[in-house]
Amino acid sequence: RQFTLAPQTEAVLNQIEKPVEAFAFFTPRLPQLAQSQQEAVNLLREYSVTNRNFSYEVVDIDQRPSIAIQYGVTEPGTVAFATEDRTQLTSEISERSFTTALLQVSGQGLKTVCFLEGHGERTIYDPSGTGFSDASLGLERDNYLVSHFNSVTDAPEDLLQRCTVLVIAGPQQDLTEDEMSLLNQYLVQSGKAFFLLDPGAPATFKYLLLQWGVGVMPGFIVDPDNRSDPLTPIVSQDLMAPSPITDVLDTAFFPQAVSLRSMVNPDNPGLIESVFPIMASGGRSWLETSEEGDITFDESQDLPGPVPMGMMVES
């Protein structure tokens, strides 16, 4: 993919409706910058091909210092992205840095992914196998800002104003009544949330989802097709329904997955447009309901697969 822009960059470029210029400032007297110059040109060429409103120029900073002064550039190896009223500089020659600058000068702004904290959730600071530090780095590489939100200590208005989406990853403690109200109000006001719940998730989180038409079933999913770990269901593309969430996925693994159901909720009339499953476990899997840790299928009480394990709510 050396000469292919990331889908996120293409999406940013496709939204540009006004001219954006990029000026790459280099100089022949610094041959050590030659490779960086070529990399910058390759990237900028791809940007210009994707959207004709984007153009670029390589400027010799020694030959044309007035242009460097105009855009506030003092060092060769700097790229200036400019519109009629904004300028953003970057000295990092990478697609991530270029797209971030493009977002800023075009006025699209960077979207912030907030991770809820304060209830024993997985954190963006934890580099272990159960932590989300790698996920955080991946989001940042895709030009998202990553932050956290504490529903007890942070200002309530920050949630809607700052968080494009709220990720709730594996909470272990219940919400307070005030927190329940805050999160529900966030969703009512068109906030977006991504719930990742483990078996035995706190009742208040399950109740919050129930208000939006999603029921969390007791038990956990067992998938014998995953011989190395039957408690980590394998979900291939044929087990996913078409949706903006699943269309970009390949085969995925879901450790300690729960089963979800669409539940009619009369408390939110008119707010929910649709609730539908977007992924399920395989046909040989089942929902294990035994509390003793037995993972042998019991047709009298366990639910045979495919078992719904991902839901999408539109409101």
Model description:
- By secondary structure, the protein is α/β, with parallel strands linked by helices.
- Helix content is 25%, strand content 24%.
- It has helices at residues 7-14, 34-50, 65-70, 95-106, 133-141, 156-162, 177-188, 203-210; strands spanning 20-26, 54-60, 78-82, 87-90, 112-117, 145-150, 165-169, 193-196, 214-216, 220-222, 234-235, 252-253, 260-262, 274-280, 286-288, 303-304, 308-314.
- It has a four-stranded mixed sheet with strand order 2-1-3-4. A four-stranded parallel sheet has the order 6-5-7-8.
- The longest helix is centred in the first third of the chain and has 17 residues, at 34-50.
- The protein is elongated and about 80 Å long.
